[in-house]
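job 3f2a | input accepted
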Amino acid sequence: MINIEKITKKFGDIIALSEISFKIEKGEFVFLTGPSGAGKTTLIKLLLAEYSPTLGEIEINGEKLSKVPKNKLHLWRRKMGVVFQDYKLFPDRTVFENVALPLEISRTPVSELNEKVDKILNLVGLTERAYLFPAQLSGGELQRASLARAVVTGPEILLADEPTGNLDPKTSAEMIELFTEINKKGTTILMATHNQGVVDSFKGRVIELDKGKLVRDEAEGKYESKKAKK
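job 3f2a | predicted structure (230 res):
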């Protein structure tokens, strides 16, 4: 589904990512870990085509990013839902309106839009908060709203950049349960996080970056460390 092939990303003389390669199969739940500055957010932005690789290729479902015309990049991004640490909700829109926005952009008929938004708000437990504004919500509720907006269009892939970074341990655990439920419905998830407690509690596949290099790829008890091979 997702194929990262020898990706290098440079910003001037700074090498943010160096020859990163891995594959993620359809339906996987993968944690992308590593310390601050390891390259996690850079990789997320490369997948979203916000950055272009200096070298290498990104491929999703057989489509190469390098072959997508610039005026079609918005269609590439529609393959993916995105959840950010800082929520990125519009303060002047209600929860319902924020979640409905991607459907409005894709010109979904009103009746269908209402049905989809109601359904996803119920899934994330925000039905009773639908007509409140972001300033009236707790941090956990804001993140739930951000997650609802990311998945309301039914994307095949969900990217999450430190989605539990601003949350307490209990709320973080509740968010991971929601991500797990969404994954069980068939959505492929790549979650960037430095929260080791979250990673350890899930026991899923872990891809670890350090100083722009892939140093670990562990899944279901299998362990591969490029550090160990050196």
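job 3f2a | The longest strand covers residues 14-24.
job 3f2a | closed
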